[in-house]
Amino acid sequence: MNRFWSPVIQQLEPYRPGEQPKHQTYIKLNTNENPWGPSPQALEAISAATSGALRLYPDPSASDLRAGIASSLQMTSDHIFAGNGSDEVLAHAFHAFFSGKEPILFPEITYAFYPTYCKLYSIEYRLAPVGSDFRVKPSDFTGACGGIVIANPNAPTGLAMPLEDIEAILKANPGVVVLVDEAYIDFGGQSAVHLVPDYDNLLVVQTFSKSRSLAGMRVGFAVGQPHLIEGLCRVRDSFNSYPLGRLSLAGALAAWKDSAWFEKTCDQIVADREKLTLNLQTLDFAVLPSSTNFLFASHAHVSAEQLHADLRDHGILVRYFKRERINNWLRVSIGTSEECTTLVKVLRTML
Ligand SMILES: *Cc1c(COP(=O)(O)O)cnc(C)c1O
After folding, report:
1. What separation in Å is there between the alpha carbon of 173 and the centre of ligand 1?
2. Is residue 151 in contact with ligand 1, taking CB distance under 6 Å?
3. Would the CB of 94 count as within 6 Å of ligand 1?
4. Ligand 1 within 6 A of 153 CB?
5. pLDDT by residue (tens digit) across 213-243?
6. How, if at all, do strands 330-333 and 202-207 pair?
7. Does residue 207 line the site of ligand 1, with CB under 6 A?
8. Does this model's pTM top 0.70?
9. Which whole-number Å values give the CA distances from 50 to 63, 152, 153, 257, in the listed order?
């Protein structure tokens, strides 16, 4: 509390991201970063963009990047919006499409940034309960609401929702925007981007942070029909018309085009994920079936809070959420194959 803060700022509960230790001696499996690093072509493009031209403002509409994304999705650029990380794109979408008159709906267990945006923009929300298996049920997304947000695959559970379920939600809610956050889609889910031409209420948001390994660059994008994209542009141009710098634009476009690197690194993460799942199961963990670059796991005998602290003492960071329903679960990012092996070895000595 502070007498200078506005009423909105007083009541905020800011999102708390996973720890980024200054001295990188930890094996970092706590923020779902991609261990394989960006495409070498992206790094080259970033170097090439590092020039005196940085004195000039970047392209406010990110036209080359949008054209690149649009052409591989067989769409036109007016279906794409690019922003400073998908967190910013999501925030603009909440601001642009959720009026605050009717509560919006999202699952009880999902990305913790959604309630934060609601508080920031004074948007009421209701939580759709998830069952003991943590699955999100499309039948909970019927009835009047001011909008819907679904992370697919969901975080921090890693569970994917079938595309038919997304489509059922779109059909049941033609009057409001359905925001599908596909931060992890490249590791196994079925993307809703191809439904965009059929649904004027669908906005799909993706990021370069996870599957393209550019978390440090901050690039995200949305795919939707032009009237929704225009809504996002209106917010952007009332906030910061240059959300992406020259280096980000160059790096993201090159990363997008390097599909060989993208496929190779995603495949490796999926292979290591499946191996780590089996290894954790052998160590008495329950592990949810993951379609992402992380696992959500709970041990039969040792508390997640304890394991989180003990792993930290052994130099391994994983994510622990002290939140109802999930406070006995750990979220473990898939590191390099070697890091996964070390994790299993350390757990074996601990348990
Ligand atoms: C990581 C993540 C994001 C944010 O990604 P950035 O593009 O790095 O801002 C958005 N949604 C979910 C569910 C995420 O896990």
Report:
1. 25
2. yes
3. no
4. no
5. 999 999 999 999 999 999 999 999 999 999 9
6. unpaired
7. yes
8. yes
9. 19, 35, 35, 20
Q: Nearest C-alpha to atom 1 of ligand 1 is from which residue?
A: 183
pLDDT in tens, 70-81: 999 999 999 999
Query: In the structure encoding, which two tokens stand for residue 213, read together?
Result: 């390994």
Residue with tokens 């506005």: 6
Mean pLDDT by 10 residues, the chain (351 residues): 90 86 87 98 98 97 98 98 98 94 96 95 96 95 95 98 98 97 97 98 98 98 98 97 98 98 98 98 98 98 97 96 95 98 97 90
Report pLDDT digits (tens) over 181-225: 999 999 999 999 999 999 999 999 999 999 999 999 999 999 999
346 lines ligand 1 (CB under 6 A): no
3-class SS of residue 138: helix
Q: What proportions of the chain, in percent to the nearest 5, are helix, strand and coil?
A: 40, 15, 45
Q: Establish whether residue 180 lines the binding site of ligand 1, counting it when its CB lies within 6 angstroms of any ligand atom.
A: no
CA of 301 to the centre of ligand 1 (A): 31
Task: Give residue 110 CA to ligand 1 midpoint distance, Å.
Answer: 12
Nearest-angstrom CA–CA distance, 104 and 228:
17
Tell whether ligand 1 has an atom less than 6 A from the beta carbon of residue 209: yes
At residue 233, the 3 state secondary structure works out as helix
